[in-house]
Design a protein that fits this description.
CATH topology of the largest domain: Aminopeptidase
Structural class: alpha+beta
Strand content: 25-35%
Order of helices and strands: HHEEHHHEEEHEHEE
Number of strands: 8
Distance between the termini: 48 Å
Bound molecules: coenzyme A
Number of helices: 7
Radius of gyration: 23 Å
Strand order of the largest sheet: 1-2-3-4-5-6-8-7
CATH architecture of the largest domain: 3-Layer(aba) Sandwich
Largest sheet: 8 strands, mixed
């Protein structure tokens, strides 16, 4: 009985303290709580390392403007097929000038309208990118909450679960950024990528035209 009475008093005390709390102080607490919750979600996207099936550990971070040299190195490890699957152009059309232009554009990420999550490893030389998942706001979309998603994994790192891991982290990132829908353009004969997107088991509509399949994916 005494314990119950003490508990009731304690609860009343806390309730009184909250009601009596000045508004600006309450706002500060709310902001801190929001920030804590945001960081918790953010850490779940970046923090856990990923171990490939061969035991190699990879870490994740967002792309920065100074990552151009790392992208050149990534490009050197990509087959013509992977490049054309990602950028929807025949590899022979991707001249060195075009590569330079594409890379200069790719590093322009503001992390609001577009962002790029990268999987990397580090050795004595420095960092090396092995995968990139990019989200870009679709500007002609009335709702403004659709992101185009594209993913690429270095050829010597494919088929070890990294593509799936990148997409699942990109999905959490997209939700954190407030996107409600994804759109992905995949060459119709790119069965691996189509299978990968479908394996997310999200509500998806597919439209195929001129050898390209557009996937509209609800990600809420
Ligand atoms: C598509 C791509 C990102 C997949 O990356 P990955 O690391 O090889 O994929 P994962 O090892 O995580 O495989 C996940 C699932 O994808 C599917 N998949 C991936 N590659 C496949 C292939 N070559 N054939 C069939 N299914 C494949 C499978 O469903 C697989 O699941 P499972 O292992 O249970 O069978 C990679 O092949 C790539 O970079 N391709 C070039 C760029 C591209 O096509 N991007 C997509 C358009 S933006």
């Amino acid at each position: 009985m005494a314990i119950l009475l003490f508990y009731a008093q304690l609860n009343r005390g806390i309730a009184t303290a909250i009601v009596a709390m000045p508004l600006p102080f309450m706002k500060q607490i709310m902001i801190k709580l929001k920030r804590w919750f945001y960081n918790l979600k953010r850490n779940r996207i970046f923090k856990p390392e990923f171990t490939l099936q061969n035991g190699q550990k990879l870490y994740f971070r967002l792309m920065l403007p100074e990552d151009q040299p790392l992208l050149y190195e990534l490009r050197a490890h990509l087959s013509d097929q992977s490049l054309s699957r990602r950028f929807h152009v025949d590899a022979y059309r991707i001249t060195p000038e075009r590569v330079q232009k594409i890379i200069a554009e790719l590093v322009q990420v503001d992390n609001v309208a577009q962002t790029a999550l990268m999987a990397l490893y580090r050795d004595d030389v420095g960092e090396h990118i092995v995968g990139v998942a990019r989200l870009a706001l679709v500007t002609d979309e009335a709702s403004g909450q659709t992101a185009e998603v594209a993913v690429i994994v270095r050829d010597d790192y494919q088929q070890q679960g990294l593509g799936r891991e990148m997409l699942s982290r990109a999905l959490r990132l997209a939700r954190l950024m407030g996107f409600k829908k994804w759109v992905a353009y995949i060459q119709t004969d790119n069965l691996g990528a189509l299978r990968l997107f479908r394996s997310l088991k999200l509500p998806t509509q597919a439209h195929t035209s001129h050898g390209s399949t557009e996937l509209q994916i609800a990600i809420e």
